[in-house]
Amino acid sequence: MPSHLRKQLVVVGHGMVGHRFVQAAVERGLTETHDITVLGAEPRPAYDRVALTSYFEVGAEALSFLPGGTYDDPRVTLRLATEVVAISPRQRVITLAGGEDLHYDELVLATGAFPFVPPVPGKDLENVFVYRTIEDLEAIRAASRKAKVGAVIGGGLLGLEAANALHQLGLETHVVELAPRLMAVQIDDAAGSTLSRHIETLGLTVHTGAMTEAVLGRRKVTGLALKDRNPLDVDLVVFSAGIRPRDALGRAADLEIAERGGILVDERCRTSDEHIWAIGECAAPGGRMYGLVAPGYTMAEVVVDALLGGGAGAFTGADLSTKLKLLGVDVASFGDAFAADEDALEVVYADAVAGIYKKLVVKELASGGYELLGGILVGDASAYGVLRPLVGSGMELPDNPEELILPAGRGSTGSASDLLPDDAQVCSCNDVTKAEIVAAVSEGGACDSAACVTACTRAGSTCGSCKNVVKKIVEDHFAATGRTVDKSLCEHFAMTRQELFEVVAVHGYQRFDDIVAGHGRGRGCDICKPAVASILASLLHHHVLDGANATLQDTNDAYLANLQKNGTYSVVPRLPGGEVTPDKLIVIGEVARDFGLYTKVTGGQRIDLFGARLEDLPAIWRRLVDAGMESGHAYGKSLRTVKSCVGSAWCRYGVQDSVGLAVELELRYRGLRSPHKLKGGVSGCARECAEARGKDFGIIATEKGWNLYVGGNGGAVPAHAQLLAGDLSHDELVRYLDRFLMYYVRTADRLQRTSTWLAEIGGVARVRAVVVDDALGLGDELEAAMAQHVDSYFDEWRATIEDPEKLARFVSFVNAPGAPEPAVAFQEEARATTLTLGTAVCRLDQVQRESGVVALVGGADVAVFRTYDDEVFALANVDPFGQASVLSRGIVGTTARDGADVPFVASPLLKQRFDLRTGVCLDDPEVAVATYDVRVVDGVVVVGARRETIAS
């Protein structure tokens, strides 16, 4: 289109909603007719404000939605640190702080909101902050270095996020909330009490029903005055008491303003001026401000639709349901959570010991059944994905609605997916309904598996939280229509994990190549390779990084540490039973200080060190190993910890030595690879301070010996362990535990916790028959297998740092091994040689088959991959979903597409697969990474020009 015919679209505000608007405008072709100028008041591009607390851990770059600082579309101009001071609607001109005027044809206001600070004395003192931007957090962090005690004014969503930030910074933290409970807008009193108990167990102090009268101090904060209560001695205060719409520009331009603030807009998000639109928190559709991101995203799409000339898009309100994790606690609220309907009835399940509260609000129908109106979930929100879509669906609930919120094994034996109406939104990230999933696998549909559904519909391809629901819907539909439910491990192995385990054991296989050649197809994938790696580790007790087996390992096992969202790792040394000497504590502290690591005490009585760079891992391990510590296997599907109370050695109630037994069992089962992670606990009396019944195996002392419980776990779907045998002697306990664990290792499905395995295999009675009564005659065999594991144990960290071949994996760049990631400067001796075609980065034999390395080429991170057939591919190393430079660390495999095997790499972050040939994401074809020309010249890998990949 000629430039004189193009329209000028100006967007004021580059927060999350403003960025979403620009994204939608570009994706839907609005830039074909419009030039877009985006004006952001902050000094940085849009970033994930929802995840603001993680800034201390991952940094600003990881939160950014636009790491490069510019949009790829040349018709979009982004100007940062630019303040708009006036709008002249008649002239269609905006004025900037420096006096510059900009003309617009259409203007979109996405100015967001600002923190509300109550007008209390002392609010302007030094060390008083608000919690809204990265700059706010930088100021809080700087002040925290000299502060000791902090208080957050406000106990809502943002207030608890702010409290988490202070807690992470090491401050003693108080939360002060005027309402009688935390999160008063979302949850009721009982849920608030449950949430408060969770938070206080972390060491924070909660003050509800507390009015702040003043911030005390002359120049700096020295305290906080509360009405009718003793003052708090604090030296840092954060106000997080809600937000107000940033509508000053609209007011000054005489746009209509809602009674409670916010720029009034119609259902198309158009203001009282036909050429000015408002979206996000500054807008008030129908006179109401929405303080959540999702409604703002919907408004952005509506305005893009209107500017494109579409007539269908309208903002008719928003679902204000909320599901999030606050200070490690799952909290969800949906629908009529407070039973406002006069005919509402409440169904409540509460377990104060486990810290779980669930409430359903239902209404009796004329048929005698019940309809779901809303609910609250605290401590366990795993049912949210099924329950929320039922609100307003008109569907009748089961005869006993309580079955929907009872713990696993105590509710209905039917399928929760059957309750979902066809129009229920299963995948909120990509707006995929149950009907679309069913249609994909129905007769005439394109799919025959859950994995295929994800590829076709994108359900589960983004955050992955709905994958289990997608799988269940597919399986239930197959069962209902008489089709065989495919239990194959993956497309490469038409057998279950248990069947594959037996095949490997019987044939004595030691290599993946032999297993896939004899019993599979293709070259494997990110599902079967880690499963085979785990089976080989369980049977052979070799080092997981030995030879070609290193390329089979999943995200964390591949580098013997836990990958974090920004590409760094966390390191957890083993502290058996939670015991640690002062000398070891000092070494852990020195390591954290010297390598700049964030430290946190875990729920398993260990110390986690976050932020370690890949190339620093061996040096960190060396320091820990030299001090007498070893790998804690926090990275593996293996035994993590055996938690203990202090037992009879210290506690006046203890009847047995729980610490001694916990140490013994942790050292016995350390390194045991299993289908999923394993956790244990030992309590020295019935008071159960070690929470043993929330573990895969839990032991509780009695006057006569020990009670053994099995099949418990915390996590997304908590389950209480069940009694396997009681009043056991020490030797009986160890024998039965050996058998139980090896029986689980041999027969459980991939990534199946002991709780679900126990239910599927026939319950605790069936396991008791095998383990205690030896009904199958497997007792000696299972005990012998465990004895072999115990005898062959070695520390993986020590073995790695003593093996030069294994150490070669732990470098930042293959062509600059001494340079740190991600910003590096070449040392002269590490500088790559430039050839006619491009840059020589390494020898081909430096890239292990079916794996990748990362090279520095022209200042960019380039992932170089080598397939089983010695083909070489090069991609940009950045995962576009997580914005971390990690693709080179992913599993390389193949998947069948259109009759051919497509080579791919699975990102180690969220497992999205990228075609090595094109860079296109196989799970979401609208996303792609750049590829590079690459070839092998005389045994040397040479990387050439970058090719931008155009996603479909």
UniProtKB/TrEMBL annotation:
It comes from the Bacteria. It catalyses: hydrogen sulfide + 6 oxidized [2Fe-2S]-[ferredoxin] + 3 H2O = sulfite + 6 reduced [2Fe-2S]-[ferredoxin] + 7 H(+). One of its GO terms (biological process) is nitrate assimilation. Its cofactor is [2Fe-2S] cluster; FAD; siroheme; [4Fe-4S] cluster. It is an enzyme of class 1 (oxidoreductase). It holds the Pfam family NIR_SIR_ferr. This is assimilatory sulfite reductase (ferredoxin). It comes from Nocardioides simplex.
